[in-house]
Amino acid sequence: MKARRPLLALAGGLGLALAACQQPAFAAEEFVHAPAAKAEAHESGGLKTAIFAGGCFWGIEAVFSHVKGVKSAVSGYHGGTEKTANYATVSTGRTGHAEAVKITYDPKVVRYDQLMRIFFSVGADPTQKNRQGPDVGTQYRTAIVPLSAEQNRVAKAYLAQMKGGNSWGRPIVATIERGQAFYPADAHHQDFAAKNPNHPYIRRWDAPKVAALSKYYPQFYSRSFQRN
User: Buried b / exposed e across 64-87, counting CB within 10 Å, b at 16+?
Assistant: First the structure.
């Protein structure tokens, strides 16, 4: 059964409610120190963008917002159509969208292959199909979305490397998706972990991701949250 997100009233005078990630009694997520990529990315020419989909976008945004070199991390929907790119409709799992995060980063500080390694280590479990933790549905699928030929080259090599190893002890089902339109989510979803640090879902599922980032990748971890 698909995990429903209960309604809660947001702070900050928004005066509205949103369907929020649920906190059922699931076991804690496992974090795996993913292997370093054998194929390193070589990107030049200033800031770059990339899209990552891996379950509830609050957590993926929170992780990348604490990575040095990431200039912005925007929660939204990848794929589907503009007409159905809203939270209530996407949550049905029938629109073709994936909850995703579009990041802008400086490749001189953090390379694309390093971002993928961080993503699969502490952001999303690549062995879960159409779900992450308590969240179930095609909108929670795990995918990397290359936005350039170089990103595509490195992404294909890293996914093959992951499938050829045994770091997770289970088959890798994460995919590479062709870049399509990205639709930013409503403002109350942006910087959600920073604005709602005591939200039950954030404390239960997403704060541990950020803690794992600081543990596994202290060289990339920033204590401050890079807000949009």
Answer: bbbbebbebbbbbbbbbeeebbeb
Q: Which amino acid is at 55?
A: G
Question: Average pLDDT for residues 209-221, to the nearest whole number?
Answer: 98
Instruction: Verify whether residue 56 is a known catalytic residue.
Output: yes
Nearest to 108 by CA among 141, 145, 70: 70
Active-site choice (21, 34, 56, 155): 56
122, two tokens: 């502490």
Global confidence as pTM: 0.89
Q: How many CB atoms lie within 10 A of CB 143?
A: 20
Structural element, H or E, at residue 88:
helix 87-90
Domains belonging to the chain, first-starting first, are 7-216 (3.30.1060.10)
* d(C-alpha 64, C-alpha 211), whole Å: 12
* pLDDT tens digit sequence for 33-58: 999 999 999 999 999 999 999 999 99
